[in-house]
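Next comes a single protein record:
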Amino acid sequence: MGRRRYFKSLQRDIDAVVERDPAAHSRLEVLLFYPGFHALLAHRIAHRLWKARLGFLARWIAAIARWLTGIEIHPGALIGRGFFVDHGMGVVIGETSIVGDDVTLYQGVTLGGTSIEPGKRHPTLGNNVIIGAGAKVLGPITLGDGVRVGSNAVVVKDVAASTVVVGIPARVVARKEDGAAQFTAYGAIGDSLRDPSTNGLDGLLESVQTLSARVAELEKQLQGKSVDVDGLWPQQSGIGNSTDSDTTNGDD
């Protein structure tokens, strides 16, 4: 029964690659040529050894997998079914990481820790999470089901389910109304998502341009016209008049 369950899990891992990568043309191609699948296969074996307290052997298998695939998964990490690492070079998954079902990671992703204290140090990912290339998820935080993390984002706080985050540090830019059912590559939904900081700077620039145009229009209207200085700056104007009067009286 255990063997049957193992092969079903293996088949789901292969199907996950075929479903999410249009470059995968067959299951045989995934089985032979996909480093993400090879790293996952090695991790399944290493994790069993780790749980059996055969830590040295488990780390040896994980080290060989890292040399061959460029993907480093600690044997202690708990990874669910349908896990897919696309390309995968530079992916690092720490010891106490927990990864749910049908999760996708792209190259350069780190599930890392922020402390050397024992205990839970690495992230927990829910089901159907997608993390874009180069993103870092750090610390014992939780990403809910259906979370999308944009490429090169740095996530250091919990993220609610069905949420899209981007930026450094990562900020919420959208919430998925359709839950986690739809696969969206690289953590983005369409091309309309932008970093909140960029939106703020664009708004500030637009305001400056509007004010500059209004000032230019006022200068044009005032050109060639006399300005009532007394009405604009009465105190300064008064000082100026008294000075002129004193100078005139002195000349007389």
Summary: The radius of gyration is 31 Å. The first strand starts at residue 72 and ends at 73.
